[in-house]
Design a protein that fits this description.
3 helices; 13 strands; single chain; 13-stranded antiparallel beta sheet; alpha+beta
């Protein structure tokens, strides 16, 4: 009797769990389900090998002044995760960000001389327009993902993906609309909107080059349309 009762209880728990999962899925539209699948595919991408690259971070302030800082990027593959390290020097101080991709989860850190410190996603790299969350593609981890349409954008066949933040902070994004290249799953362009729903940033890769049989981004541009500032990451990529 006890064994039969235990099996009955287990069966009832399983039934309610499956029902709850089905209900959750049923609450989503096809566009939302496909949006989650696409965001997951983007997050699953990683470099084929570890590598290091250098370049320049150019920051054009709203007043027209321009700073050019040396920049170093590392992609490090391990047995359990892969890491992206962004490093530059500003006003004599080393600025270092680490993005750790681990089992489809993301951990974002600002690295200080005293050790690792978890930072706000809107914390800027060397006071540029690139935020920690931008470099970590944090918005693809939001639960609300939705495909809006398919169209040609900047001469590439794209899927337009809307990522919505369920709990936007005062200084963060409320949503991001991205044009995803159908062939490479790379971002062709992305618009980020502030907590009030106003367009805040325009992000796009400018140049590509083929290195060792793989396409790599040479120039990344981030424009703040509200402050009229502009930051450019230019990598020293040698053409094959």
């Amino acid at each position: 009797m006890k064994s039969a009762l235990a099996r009955l209880i287990a069966a009832m728990i399983l039934f309610f769990c499956v029902s709850a999962l089905a209900q959750t899925t049923n609450d989503l539209s096809d566009a939302e389900i496909q949006g989650r699948v696409l965001a997951q595919k983007i997050l699953e991408q990683k470099p084929a090998d570890s590598f290091t690259n250098t370049g320049t971070l150019e920051i054009r302030r709203h007043d027209g002044t321009i700073d050019r800082l040396p920049f170093r990027f590392q992609a490090i593959l391990t047995t359990t995760n892969w890491q992206a390290i962004y490093e530059t020097t500003s006003e004599g101080y080393r600025v270092k960000f680490a993005v750790v991709h681990d089992a489809n989860k993301i951990r974002l850190f600002q690295i200080r001389e005293s050790g690792l410190v978890l930072s706000d996603f809107s914390f800027p790299l060397a006071m540029s327009d690139f935020w920690l969350g931008d470099l970590g593609l944090e918005f693809f981890h939001w639960p609300e993902q939705k495909i809006l349409k398919k169209e040609v954008h900047r001469s590439r066949g794209c899927t337009v993906l809307e990522s919505t933040n369920p709990n936007p902070g005062t200084n963060g994004y409320s949503r991001v609309v991205s044009w995803i290249d159908n062939e490479t799953l790379g971002i062709v362009e992305a618009y980020a909107y502030d907590a009030q729903g106003k367009k805040l940033k325009d992000f796009y890769p400018k140049d590509f080059k083929k290195v060792n049989g793989q396409w790599q981004v040479q120039t990344l541009v981030m424009e703040n349309v509200q402050t009229k500032s502009r930051s450019v990451l230019e990598f020293d990529v040698k053409k094959e």
